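Practice problem 4.
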């Protein structure tokens, strides 16, 4: 087995549930930039590799696996999990966080203009994610389901084009990156979600909601980019190959 430092962040996250928390702590992006090895990510982030390795070692020794072994889920099961867990979470949280960003910006924006910028950026995150989830639920996930059903049945399924799901997947990956970048900007504007001493309760609540939201988004995007999409693409290639073989 490769040493931990040479493994990719996206793969390490799947080993134990607490590893994502260690990466969050050191701001090691395991979703949109999860293809980097641990060593590369630590160098880029200016974090001591040895310190992170020690914490990962502690996590690895802990008993208990994630309740769900995501690596064993099929693409259809992953789509269902993502919808039930993450899409539901996003839809539940958006209205409250939007109301809090607006309230705090209105009350304190004159003295803290960054609160107005946070409200504007959050509005973009909310609008983008709503549109993004609708596309996944109505276009990409049903396509993935078709490909897997055909793969499972071994039928020769007539894919309308060679890159049937590759194109929507590329588009979804770009949108993930955009949402991740906006949340990173919000994190910076909030000084890592640290409210000033004089912050009111809503302000404090807002920053803790934003922090939790970003962490959920990282897990959500990681499941799609590094598990669902590669599995679905692999099935698409296999189905297309058998379809070609039948035609030839
Ligand atoms: Fe997505």
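Answer key:
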């Amino acid at each position: 087995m490769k040493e931990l430092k040479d493994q990719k962040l996206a793969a390490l996250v799947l080993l134990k549930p607490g590893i994502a928390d260690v990466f969050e702590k050191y701001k090691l992006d395991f979703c949109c930039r999860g293809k980097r090895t641990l060593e590369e990510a630590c160098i880029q982030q200016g974090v001591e590799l040895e310190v992170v390795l020690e914490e990962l070692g502690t996590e690895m020794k802990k008993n208990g696996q994630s309740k769900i072994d995501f690596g064993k889920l099929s693409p259809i099961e992953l789509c269902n999990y993502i919808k039930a867990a993450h899409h539901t979470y996003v839809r539940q949280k958006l209205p409250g966080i939007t109301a809090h960003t607006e309230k705090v910006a209105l009350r304190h924006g004159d003295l803290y203009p960054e609160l107005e910028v946070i409200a504007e950026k959050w509005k973009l995150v909310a609008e983008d994610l709503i549109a993004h989830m609708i596309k996944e639920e109505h276009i990409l996930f049903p396509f993935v389901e078709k490909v897997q059903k055909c793969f499972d049945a071994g039928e020769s399924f007539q894919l309308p084009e060679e890159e049937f799901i590759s194109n929507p997947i590329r588009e979804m990956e770009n949108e993930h990156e955009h949402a991740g970048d906006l949340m990173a900007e919000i994190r910076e504007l909030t000084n890592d979600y640290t409210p000033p001493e004089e912050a009111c309760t809503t302000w404090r609540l807002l920053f803790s909601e934003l922090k939790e939201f970003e962490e959920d988004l990282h897990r959500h995007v990681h499941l799609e980019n590094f598990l669902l999409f590669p599995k679905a693409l692999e099935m698409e290639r296999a189905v297309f190959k058998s379809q070609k073989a039948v035609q030839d």
